[in-house]
Amino acid sequence: MIELKGRTKTAVVEAEIGVTLLKLALKAKVDWSSNCTRGTCARCRCFIEEGGAALEGITDAEWDRMEPEEFEEGYRLACQAIVKSGEMSIKAINKPYF
């Protein structure tokens, strides 16, 4: 299961392997900030509270847009964070810069 927390709505959805957290949030109608869906605007930045190991690795787009300290703290771009395993729960909170 994946818990996605937007600004005012939280949804719990089934994990879909190969799908980004942003696509899952939009599909569940969670009010998740996003603009480009390519990793260039960084509006979809999120804090992975739990289950980061169930996501694919950090992408080049994320390295270009975010600081290494953010990854260490648990932040990712939801448009780049792809579900690789449904065996553990994931909790993500939308935390845009602005």
Tell me roughly what share of residues is in helical segments.
Answer: 10-25%
Shape: globular
Q: List low-pLDDT spans.
A: none
Number of helices: 3
Radius of gyration: 12 Å
How would you describe this protein?
A hairpin with a 4-residue loop joins strand 1 and strand 2 (10-13). The chain has helices spanning 21-27, 60-65, 68-73, and strands at residues 2-5, 10-13, 45-50, 75-77, 90-94. A 5-stranded mixed beta sheet has the order 2-1-5-3-4. 19% of the residues lie in helices and 22% in strands. The mean pLDDT is 96. It has 98 residues and is of the alpha+beta class.
Structure at a glance:
The chain has helices at residues 21-27, 60-65, 68-73; strands at 2-5, 10-13, 45-50, 75-77, 90-94. The chain has 98 residues and is of the alpha+beta class.
Helix and strand topology:
Layout: E1 2-5, E2 10-13, H1 21-27, E3 45-50, H2 60-65, H3 68-73, E4 75-77, E5 90-94
Parallel strand pairs: 1-5
Antiparallel strand pairs: 1-2, 3-4, 3-5
Q: Which features would summarize this protein structure in a list?
A:
5-stranded mixed β-sheet; alpha+beta; globular; 19% helix; 98 residues
